Amino acid sequence: MAAFRGVTVAGKFTLGWRQVWLALVLLSAGSMVTVTFGILSVPLMTEFGPSRMTLMLPMSVIAVVMAVLGPWLGSLMDRISLRLTVIVGGVLLSTGYVALSYVTEFWQVMVVYGLFMGPSQLTVGNMAMTVLVSRWFSAMRGRAMGIALTGVS
């Protein structure tokens, strides 16, 4: 066996590499919140008529929530099961998408992004997936991270 848990000497596709592909998929799903906001902004502008500055406030709300919760959630991920953290993040992300379909005023969009989308970006996003991949690899960690983080692009 090699010096890490990701691949055996025979080069089989083992559990470590499955975690890398899982991270890629979760990062793709999680990053859609911020990547597709430009597409979502046109219907939001049509529906609620906010100024352009106000229209971009949900992205600022996500950034502030991530900055405030990041250190706390990072230390929490060291203490509790990462699986539980990712499941909670997936529930937050799904709830946020559903809640967006029910908003009737623009301030509610900002609340949804602050309460659901922001925390989910940490628990399903880069921070959680970096922790996941780094726990599985000691050698070839850079390659594994590179593959996993392509899910963001």
Could you provide a short overview of the structure?
By secondary structure, the protein is mostly helical.
- Class computed from helices, strands and strand pairing: mainly alpha
What characteristic shape results from the CA principal axes? elongated
In which range does the helix fraction lie?
over 70%
Strand content: under 5%
Would you mind describing this structure in some detail?
The chain has 153 residues and is mainly α. The chain has eight helices and no strands. The chain has helices spanning 15-35, 37-48, 52-55, 57-79, 82-100, 106-123, 126-136, 141-149. It is elongated and about 50 Å long. The protein starts with 14 loop residues before the first helix and ends with a helix. The mean pLDDT is 88.
Question: What's the structural blueprint in terms of helices and strands?
Answer:
Layout: H1 15-35, H2 37-48, H3 52-55, H4 57-79, H5 82-100, H6 106-123, H7 126-136, H8 141-149
Helix pairs in contact: 1-7, 1-8, 4-6, 5-6, 7-8
Jot down its keywords.
153 residues, single chain, mainly alpha
